Amino acid sequence: MMRQAGRYMAVYRKLAEKHPSFRERSETTDLIVEISLQPWEAFHPDGVIIFSDILTPLPAFGVPFDIEEVSGPVIQSPIRSEEDLKTLHPIDFEKLQFVGESLSILRKEVGERAAILGFVGAPWTIATYIVEGGTTRTYTTIKSICHTAPHVLRALLSHLAKAIAEYVIFQVDAGAHCIQIFDSWGGQLPPHMWERWSKPYIDKMVSVIKKKCPQTPIVLYINGNGGLLERMKGTGVDVIGIDWTVDMADGRKRLGSDISIQGNVDPAYLFSPLPALEDEIKRVVQCAGTKGHILNLGHGVLVGTPEEAVAHFFNVARSLKFDTQVDSYAVGASNLVG
Question: How far apart are CA 216 and CA 233, in angstroms?
Answer without folding.
Answer: 17
